[in-house]
Amino acid sequence: MRDNGFRWWRAAAVSVALAVAAGPAVAHAGHPAPHNDDLDVQVSVGVDGVATAKIHAERYTPAGRPRGVQVMVPGSTYDHRYFDLGIGAVPSQARQAAEQGWLVIAVDRVGTGESSKPPAASVTTAVQVASLDSFVDRIDAMYRSLPIVLIGHSYGSVVAEGVAARSDKVDALVVTGFLYRRTAPSFEGFPELLPAATDPVLRKKKLPADYLTSEPGSRKFFHHVPNTSPAVLAADERSKSTTTAAEIPGFTEEFLGGAFAKAVRVPVFVVVGEHDHLYRGNDPAAFEPDQRTAFAAAPGVQVALVRDAGHDLALHRNASSTTSLINRWATRTITERVPS
């Protein structure tokens, strides 16, 4: 959290369970369209053989003065397009947040999209955290007057937690598609990871050896299909990105040990779909207290279970409601501060 003479008004850990009802995506008539441009930043890394890296991002600038910056971090086999799929069948989380007053920066993590692609063995969680930490420092230098909210999805939530745990530039953290629980979840049906060089979507990209992606036609695992447009499923397959064997242990270690979560000292909002594979089989009564326990040092922990949604919250028909819920929490959180 910033050392800026402010304290969080609600210092005690308070958890409020919320539920989002399923509903059709809503239009945003009357909201000025945000400006969208590319942002490429060279950052220091200094771990696992990676000295520096280029982080590519898409920047969405609202029409008026931003209320803050949202840095969006996608999960494994996704890049920034998870937050802006680019088709009319689903609202864009990035664009909607910008329409609602946020300056949004949706990143391609190292090894994905248009960011640097070091050898697969060097695409580790340590590299992801170090590179994004440096990236956040650069964003803070560009927009010093604005609070920064990190929003992660799935493995991107793990990375965002790692950054929030070590950075003094982060003001709040939103964790989506990831949670902590006392009992092990079932990964039955999880897509097999295959060499990206053999994949119909990615084989022409000349990726480094040993980069991986989901097997063709398997991405419906991340969706609650009854509430997902077929066009979205097809676009999800067309836009898929990569992962590596070296970054997978970081997800497991954080899920089981929670080292990053224990060190987070900013307010946290955990948002999970009721049909997410990580939530299935969980005791619903344990969901809220388990998150509060995991983020024990955070000054506030809130949770939301999104009805009729799976793992990919931003790609379901009710994504607009979920995005508005996140934006309301983030707005309330950054404004509920008073001088110490």
Describe, in plain words, how this protein is organized in 3D:
By secondary structure, this protein is an alpha/beta fold. Helix content is 26%, strand content 22%. The longest helix has 18 residues. The N terminus is likely disordered.
CATH architecture: 3-Layer(aba) Sandwich
Helix content: 25-40%
Uncertain residue segments:
3-30
Strand order of the largest sheet: 2-12-11-8-7-5-6-4-3
Task: Summarize the main sheet.
Answer: 9 strands, mixed
Q: Can you tell me the CATH topology?
A: Rossmann fold
What is the count of helical runs? 8
Beta-strand level of the residues, as a percent range? Answer: 15-25%
Radius of gyration: 18 Å
Secondary-structure element string: EEEEEHEHEHEEEHHHEHEHE
Compute the average pLDDT: 90
Number of domain modules: 1
Structural class of the secondary elements? alpha/beta
Number of DSSP strand runs: 13
What is the fourth-level CATH superfamily? Alpha/Beta hydrolase fold, catalytic domain
- Termini Cα gap: 14 Å
CATH class label: Alpha Beta
From the spread of the alpha carbons, the general shape counts as: globular
Keywords: Hydrolase, Signal
GO molecular function: hydrolase activity
Pfam family, one: Abhydrolase_6
Organism: Lentzea fradiae
